[in-house]
Structure formats: C-alpha cells, structure tokens
Design brief:
With 386 residues, the protein is of the alpha/beta class. It folds into 2 domains: 194 residues, Glycogen Phosphorylase B (Rossmann fold, 3-Layer(aba) Sandwich), CATH 3.40.50; 161 residues, Rossmann fold. It has 13 helices and 13 strands. The strands form 2 sheets. Strands 3-2-1-4-5-6-7 form a 7-stranded parallel beta sheet, sandwiched between helices. Strand 9, helix 8 and strand 10 form a beta-alpha-beta unit. Helix 4 runs parallel beside helix 5 and helix 7 crosses helix 11. The longest helix has 18 residues. It is globular and about 65 Å long. It starts with 9 loop residues before the first strand and ends with a helix.
Length: 386
C-alpha cells in the first residue's frame, strides 16, 4: 500500500506479547502484508517471536510486563514506546490489549500520529474488581484513559469485541459511540477448524476439555468442584486442562492447589498446546465457565469444530453460545448449575450433538476470520486512503 509519492504505508503493531499476535492475529498480519503495508512490530520478544517475525519488516523489543503494577516499570515502558514512535513515525498505529492502548494512545495523541486504532481485546476484571487497590487505580487512570481514547484532531477508532465492554467505556466517559466500533473477536478459520467426526456422540469414559489459562477468572475452581461431585456420583470422565498457569495474572492458582489437582487421577494437565485442532478432535465436550472474556477464541474454535459447549452468561461467551440452541449457558460462578449442565449433556448425547452442529453453523455465519479481518482492513484502507 503506497501513497502518491510511492512510499509504502507503514503500520506499527503494538502488543503486550507476540504469543497473542501469533495465536489471534497471524491471518490479519498475513493479509496486511499481502496488501503491501510495511509492518513494524513493537512487542516483548517472547517464545513466539520467531514464529511471528516473518510478517514484519522491522522489529523492536518492548519492555512491558502485563501484570506489573510497579510505577518504575511502567515509566520505562512509556519511555520505550515514546522512543519507538519517534523512531518509526508510522502512518498508523494499531494497539492490541489494554496497556498498549492506554500508553500507546497517549503517545500517539501527544506525537500527533494521524491514525490510531485502540483494540480492546477485553477489559478483564479491571472495571468490575472488588479490590480496593484496583478501584483507586482506575480513578487515578481515568483521565489518562480519556486522553488515550479520544482524539478530535486525528483519525481514531476504538475497537471492542463485545457491546458490554464498549458500553462500560462509554458509561465511564472514556470514549464515545462515534469513535467506537464492535468487531467480534479475532475470528476463526472455519476451513481449518472443522471436524470430520460428524457422528460424534458423548460416550462412556468421555473426555471433557477446559481450554484456557489456569487462573481463577476462567472458572477453573468451580469446574473442578462440579466435576468432583459428579465423580463421587460415579460419572466416568476425564477433565483435560489445556493451558498454562499464568503467573503474570493476579488470580493464578498457587502451587499447592495445582499439586492437589495433580493428584486426582481424573484430571489431566496438557499444558500449553500448540495444535488445538488435534486436541479438540480427541474431546467430547468443551467447558469454559469464565467470569468474563473479550470474545473467547477457544469457544470459537470449539464451536467451529462442532463441539458441544457449556459456558457462562458473561460478555465474550454469551455472544458465541445461545442457551439451549448451540450449547448450555449457566450463571457465572454457579457450581450447581454447571454440574447440572454437565450431567445433562452426558445423559443426552443426541442433544449434545445437535448443540455442536448448531454452534458450527453460528460461527460460520458470524465469526469466520475472513469476515472479521475484512472489517479491520476496511478501517486501515479508510484511514490511509490517498
């Protein structure tokens, strides 16, 4: 993509980790690359750096810790961002995840960068946390949020994955309806995530999958508690946990809890899985009792694979699964309803199969990666037209 002088249009992609870009945005990056944009990476160089670097023309390491609340570390991050923006002078900056949106949004406005996209992939517990420290921190940060998410002089769009997150920002007067846009997650490759086992039915010795980081906010405690009661009632299944302990998240499980779960012969820890398609193929039921999501990638993948799904009635999950049509949706943190839902699908395999088929239909109609990326690229083309 070039301007009238023949210069390639440069886009600075800012993220809190390359793991996110590889697992959620590599298809988008590939399309942008094919369109001719010059892509610049600004992210901590983690284990996925080598896999994602091929999409970028320039790379810059970013000093950023997702879970840090240390003011000294945050100042270093802001300085790092400022120097990178000055160095590359991009035509457009695309911030992914909340810290880059806040810090990068402030710097973009201060440096008068003409085109900015703040991509809020999920607000997590920050706006609904009961922690006194977080509540006071949000009050302090509110003016900075407002500055970062508003720019009347230049082009800015704030992308949210669901209407609840967008409405929270509008109610807090951080952004406006005019500068906000809902784009439903990162999408899923429905051609890749497709299951040839059309006749899947729940069976004896079935395999249940929890596909998420091992943190309390994903509902792991409620899930294991519900499963434990079902095991005591002689239901025979394995709970597979596909995800790592996220030590940068304040709600990660401690070592003793993990060791306690490890001793249960009905629980199998798979760790961080590189090929989730093969994992889904071996499973009979997917359960994600999350407290809140941006828009769950794992649910999109599972639904695309025609998996029966149980999840919670929270933003980022309820948009994907419709209760009693494409899965079962239960109240958040409700162990008893969760247990009842698991029991229901185990005892009704034909119902579970129908839910899985309906889930794939929904994903193909609304959440394919092609449709999602087209919406994002349209913003690029609109901003960078000449």
């Amino acid at each position: 993509m070039t301007n009238i002088k023949g210069r390639m249009k440069s886009v600075l992609i800012v993220s809190n980790c390359t793991w996110y870009l590889y697992n959620f945005r590599k298809e988008l990056l590939n399309e942008l690359k094919e369109k001719g944009y010059t892509l610049i990476l600004l992210s901590p160089f983690d284990e996925y750096y080598s896999r994602i670097s091929k999409y970028f023309d320039h790379k810059e390491n970013l000093f950023l810790s997702r879970g840090s609340e240390n003011p000294f570390f945050e100042i270093i991050t802001i300085i790092n961002l400022f120097l990178a923006y000055k160095k590359f002078k991009p035509d457009l900056v695309h911030h992914f995840t909340i810290k880059p949106c806040i810090y990068g949004g402030i710097i973009s406005r201060f440096l008068d960068i003409k085109n900015t996209i703040n991509h809020v992939t999920g607000i997590g517990p920050s706006f609904c946390s009961s922690r006194i420290k977080i509540k006071y921190l949000n009050k302090i940060l509110k003016p900075f949020y407002k500055y970062a998410f508003n720019n009347k002089k230049n082009n800015i769009v704030n992308i949210f994955h669901n209407s609840s997150d967008r409405d929270t920002f509008i109610e807090n007067r951080i952004t406006t309806i005019v500068s906000s846009k809902i784009i439903e997650g990162s999408g899923v490759d429905v051609e890749f995530f497709t299951n040839s086992l059309i006749n899947r039915e729940l069976k004896i010795n079935l395999q249940i999958l929890f596909p998420a980081r091992i943190i309390k906010e994903k509902g792991i405690i409620e899930l294991i508690s519900a499963c434990k009661e079902l095991w005591e009632e002689d239901f025979n299944f394995i709970l597979n946990i596909a995800g790592d302990v996220d030590l940068q998240n304040k709600s990660h499980l401690n070592k003793k809890t993990i060791e306690f779960f490890n001793k249960n012969q009905n629980i199998r820890f798979l760790g961080k899985c590189k090929n989730m398609k093969e994992i889904y193929k071996k499973m009979d039921l997917v359960i994600l009792p999350s407290w809140r999501e941006g828009l769950s990638k794992s649910l999109l993948e599972a639904a695309s694979m025609s998996m029966p799904i149980i999840t919670t009635s929270v933003p980022g999950c309820k948009e994907i699964i419709k209760n009693n049509y494409s899965g079962i949706v239960v109240p958040v943190k409700d162990k008893n309803k969760l247990k009842k839902a698991i029991k229901n699908l185990i005892e009704n395999p034909k119902l579970a199969k129908m839910y899985g088929e309906n889930a794939r239909t929904t994903v193909c109609e609304k959440f394919s990666v092609t449709k999602i990326n087209t919406k994002i690229i349209n913003i690029y083309d609109q901003f960078l037209k000449f």
